[in-house]
Design brief:
heterodimer; A: 425 residues; alpha/beta; 31% helix; B: 192 residues; mainly alpha
């Protein structure tokens, strides 16, 4: 094998890096292993944990997550529509343990950026060289009367699990001819196409089982993600079943609820739907605020290159909690951000300058059993900020063929299988 | 200094990779890791429809991505994503997947069809899709143990003309019935 062809070349180049790394002067002193603590075991946190271990098994990774199981939000609309069992969205942390990640089921109560230490409710404390915070979202009290008790009557189902099951149960119990009211949140929020895909999934169920029923979407916005494609799907598959009311027509969407009487109020109207799905406004998961990582918007400002907090050095915030626009608050984006940050953190703890990032997002929405649509985009770093790569990405064409739409559904399922095994496997 | 000598010097000094950092190009791993969301970790897809790209040759991946980017090869989402990358970046990604072993899937196939496909394979496909479609030596894709829906979509596109068939392949495909083709696809998908 004297020839240097392309394949050999890569292997040789790889070996050369390994060899040169040994002699690298900035390599951290061998005293004590490098510690990374990850707060939150959702899509972003779990991906980061696995990918740090993949890149450098000498780094000790501790993942702190209160729940023993994680339910993905993605595809949870299919559970609400009745086409999927909730259990199929459930993932545990044994896969990460196999990668050598220390998984601790506890709740983080404080992050001391100066002392580089994370403290938990269980009274433990963890020192870190780098901390990654991936707490997802928490809800804002923007709808009067929508308290913890109201959530049990009018589920948000915007964190998957019992809330998803509850909304499904209410739809099953509902009589034919009733109205399902969906109240989507204002921007920015987790999964921008989610409420509108949910309308499709619920309509698909009602069309077969309760055909006299209707869906009313009372929005906090005047436009929404994939609007043309969703509107087309509503017309194509659920004609006359779904009505969308924009914010400007209701004086700003849902203002308050009375969970006891099952009433939903806007500035001008009141509704008594059979089922109410109220999705509140959102901010970064609560630990982010406790740790002082949020700005006035309630989300976490970060640098584009490594998603390091611009408020506290040594802490990286990824996933829905970060101000990561133009990347959306999606599962794919969280997974992609986590890999970039995992690579950066491995570089940083080893005294190397992090490399150039590259991100991708793809979001599928299943609008009918054989009709899937998507939005995709490639992102790079321009002047220190995340930017869309010009000419890349975009939406499913409005005139794409039924065959292609059916393929997109199969690709959506493939995405789910692949991303969940990439995160938890 | 010959090109090969220059390369050797660069490799020896470690300058080659340091240079890549300075130039601002993402590393091959950085680029390839973004594919896992749909094509699986290290390109080994868990299905049911997105193909495994692990073990595909660099030439095949780069050619495919260029054809997706230009629209010459039909796609749903791949073409939109391909437009975000340069040919140099395709080469980097491809270098990662080309080093991976061919992935093995576990999927339901029909034993009768698989047996029928096995009989057709030798005289129709083997020349280019050697070792049951697991050899990626040239511009042939990986068919071995590949996800069946992907194989079916590919043949639909070939036959519809929305993906160009190599001349040799077209000659063979034109002579095969739809049932023959389905049997062949089941044969490839069933490989373990």
């Amino acid at each position: 094998m004297n020839k240097i062809n392309r394949r050999n070349f890569i292997k040789i180049a790889g070996a050369a890096t390994a060899a040169s790394a040994i002699g690298f002067p900035m390599i951290a002193a061998a005293a004590g292993k490098k510690q990374v603590v990850i707060v939150g075991g959702g899509t972003a946190g779990a991906t980061a944990a696995k990918y740090i271990r993949r890149a450098d098994a000498s780094v000790e990774v501790t993942l702190i997550e209160p729940n023993k199981d994680y339910y993905t939000c993605y595809l949870s609309n299919e559970v609400i529509g009745g086409g999927r069992k909730l259990d199929s969205l459930k993932f545990g942390y044994d896969g990460l343990r196999k990668h050598g990640v220390t998984v601790v089921h506890d709740t983080v109560t404080a992050i001391d950026a100066k002392g580089q230490k994370v403290t938990t409710q269980g009274g433990k404390s963890f020192s870190y060289d780098r901390c990654i915070v991936a707490p997802g979202i928490s809800f804002v009290d923007n709808i009067e009367g929508y308290d913890a008790a109201a959530m049990e009557k009018m589920p948000h189902a915007w964190k998957a699990g019992p809330q998803t099951a509850l909304l499904r149960k209410q739809l099953e119990a509902m009589a034919d001819g009733g109205t399902v009211l969906i109240a989507p949140p204002p921007n920015p929020f987790r999964c921008p196409p989610g409420p509108y895909e949910r309308a499709c999934q619920i309509a698909s169920y009602l069309k077969t089982h309760k055909p006299k029923s209707k869906i009313l979407i009372v929005d906090k916005k005047d436009k929404f993600s994939k609007q043309g494609l969703f509107t087309q799907a509503w017309d194509r598959h659920y004609k006359g079943m779904i009505e969308w009311v924009k914010a400007v027509d209701t004086g700003g969407g849902v203002k308050s609820v009375d969970a006891k009487t099952g009433t939903v109020f806007t500035e001008f109207e009141e509704y008594k739907p059979a089922v109410a799905n109220i999705i509140p406004a959102q901010v970064a998961g609560s630990i982010a605020k406790v740790a002082g990582l949020t700005d006035d918007s309630g989300w976490c400002p970060v640098t584009g290159k490594t998603f390091e907090s611009t408020i506290h050095k040594g802490i990286h915030v990824i996933g829905d909690a970060a101000i990561q626009a133009p990347l959306p608050k999606s599962g794919y984006a969280a997974n992609s951000e986590a890999k970039v940050v995992a690579a950066a953190v491995v570089d940083l703890v080893n005294g190397r300058e992090p490399g150039t990032p590259s991100w991708v997002n793809t979001c599928y929405s299943i609008v009918a059993p054989n009709d899937g649509i998507s939005v995709a985009m490639v992102y790079n770093l321009v002047d220190g900020k995340v930017a869309k790569v010009e000419g890349s990405g975009g939406l499913t064409p409005m005139d794409s063929s039924p065959e292609d739409r059916a393929r997109e559904v199969q690709y959506a399922y493939s995405w789910f299988n692949n991303i969940t095994s990439d995160i938890f496997g | 200094m010959s090109a090969r000598k220059t390369l050797a010097v660069l490799l020896g000094s470690g300058l080659l990779l340091a240079g890549a950092h300075v130039s601002g190009a993402p590393t091959a791993t950085m680029l390839a890791d973004t594919c896992a969301g749909c094509h699986g970790t290290d390109g080994a897809s868990t299905g049911p429809a997105t193909p495994s790209i692990a073990g595909m040759s660099e030439i095949y991946i780069v050619d495919s991505m260029k054809a997706f980017k230009s629209g010459e090869r039909h796609s749903t989402v791949m073409g939109r994503i391909a437009k975000g990358y340069s040919e140099e970046e395709f080469k980097l990604m491809a270098s990662v997947f080309a080093q991976q072993p061919v992935a093995t899937t576990s999927q339901k196939t029909d034993a009768t069809q698989v047996a029928a496909g096995d009989k057709l394979y030798g005289s129709n496909c083997e020349k280019c899709h050697d070792e049951k479609g697991s050899l990626a030596d040239d511009d042939a894709g990986i068919l071995y143990s590949q996800w069946l829906p992907y194989l079916q979509y590919s043949m639909e596109d070939f036959k519809a003309g929305s993906r160009e068939m190599p001349k040799k392949m077209k000659k063979k495909v034109d002579k095969l019935s739809d049932a023959d083709i389905e049997a062949l696809l089941q044969f490839f998908a069933s490989q373990q």
